[in-house]
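Input chain follows. Return structure tokens only.
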Amino acid sequence: MQERKGHFGKMKIQFNEDGSMKLPESRLVALEQEKESVVLRRKQVNTNNPAIAQLLIRFPKNKSPPENFYDYYHERKSKFTISADVHDMTEINEYEYVLEIQGVLPMYKWMEYFILSFIRDYGPKGQGYTVKVKGQWEKYDTNI
């Protein structure tokens, strides 16, 4: 019987002058691209009663959010209605918003519906934003 050993390659760890670890060039490029993108981040605040899901939306500082963004949210809310204890959007600052739904299981489907609608309407084929989606819902299949 022949034994095989995996090869993971060698990687040098480099440090900046201040002692912090240098990031690989590919990671630095990804971070720069993210700064220029709209980032939608799924956040599951609570999985028990009441279940709470949030979608954090961050627009890039070099592009202002659309003036009618609140209207856009309310249109999506009226097209796909769910009965929830809380279903609201809060502006954190001029570039960041939080959508929050509490209390009902279909909230994850609604959030995924909003994400897909947002990508369609504001992504490269819509308003021209680059959109990055991060995070996941615990114990929920996002393939709707």
